[in-house]
Amino acid sequence: MQNSILLIDNDRELTAELSHYLASEGFDLTVCNDGLSGLLEANRGQYHLILSDLMLPKLSGFEFLKKLRSTNQTPVMMLTERDDQFDRIYALELGADDYLCKPFNHRELVARIKSIVRRMLYFKPMEMQNTIKSNELVLSTTTREVYCHDSELNLTGFEFEILALLMSHAGTVVDKDKIADQVLRRPLSSFDRSIDMHISKIRKKIAEITDQEKIKTVRGAGYIFLTGSVARHLN
Fold first, then answer.
1. Strand 151-153 to strand 145-148: parallel, antiparallel, or no bridges (unpaired)?
2. What is the pLDDT of residues 178-211, one digit of tens each?
3. Average confidence (pLDDT) over 20-33
4. Phi and psi at residue 25, in whole multiples of 5°?
5. Is residue 100 within 8 Å of residue 78, measured between CB atoms?
C-alpha cells in the first residue's frame, strides 16, 4: 500500500508538480485547494502525513492546524513562503511537526516526508519496553497512549516520541542532539527551536493535569525526565 499524503495548497501549478513528483517516489497524494475542504478531508480520510500551506483561502493554515489538533494527531508539515521566525514558532505551538519554506528542494521535501512516515510506522525507541511507568506517568508504545495522574495526555506524534525518549532515560539528561537524531531524524541548525517548542507543548499539557514538574531543562546540557528521587534532589 502506498503511503498516503494530503496536500493543502491553492497553488495549482505547485500541487500538479508535487503530485507527479511524489507519485514517482511511491506516495499517493490527495490535493485540496483551501483550508476548509482540507480540514474536512483530513478528518474524513486516513493519511500518514499532511502538507499544508499557511496562506490558504476559507481557512488559514494556522486556523486549519488549530481545528485539526482538537481531534486529529496526524503529522503535519507546514509549507510556506513566509520565512518568519514567529510563524515557525507559532505553527509548532499549534502542533505542527515540521516546517519547510518555499521554494524548497524536492529531494529535501521527500527526505523529510520519508523520515516522518518511517518514524510513525516503525519507530520503536531503543532500550524501551512496551509500557513505561515513571513519576505518575504511564506511556504505552503499543497503543501510543499516555496517562498522567490517570488522565490521558493528547500528544502529537513528535511530542509522544520525545516524551517516550525522555521517559526511557528517566533520571538522566538527554541532550538535544540525541533527540534530534532519534526523533526528528535530522541534525539541528543553530537557531532551530523545534525541540524546545515540542517540550513546551508537552509541559503545558501536563500542567493542565498537575502542577508537579515532570521535565526539567538542564541549561547547556538538555532535558531530564524527573523521577521522584531526582526531583527531590534537584529541588
1. antiparallel
2. 888 888 777 777 777 888 889 999 999 999 999 9
3. 91
4. -95, 5
5. yes
Q: Residue 131 has what pLDDT? A: 84
Ramachandran angles phi, psi of 53, nearest 5°: -75, 160
Contact 234, 226 (CB under 8 A): yes
171-183 residue pLDDT tens? 999 998 888 888 8
Is 149 strand, coil or helix?
A: coil
Residue 12: which of 34, 28, 27 has the closest Cα? 34
Tell me whether the omega of the peptide bond preceding residue 103 falls within 30 degrees of 0, making it cis.
yes
Contacts 24+ apart (CB under 8 A), 123-132: 123/161, 125/161, 125/164, 125/165, 125/168, 125/182, 126/168, 126/182, 127/168, 127/169, 128/164, 128/168, 132/164, 132/167, 132/168, 132/170
The DSSP bridge pattern shows strands 98-101 and 76-80 to be parallel
> How far are the Cα atoms of 131, 156, 158, 183 from residue 91, in angstroms, in the given order?
30, 13, 14, 18
Rg (C-alpha) for the chain, rounded Å, is: 18
Per the rule left: phi > 0, alpha: psi between -120 and 50, beta: everything else, 233 is: alpha
**CA separation for the pair 5, 27 (Å, rounded):** 7
pLDDT of residue 118: 72
Exposure letters 107-145 (e unless 16+ CB within 10 A, then b): eebbebbbebbebbeebebeeeeeebebbebbbebeeee
Give the span between the Cα atoms of 50 and 76, in whole angstroms: 5
Q: Is the pTM of this model over 0.85?
A: no
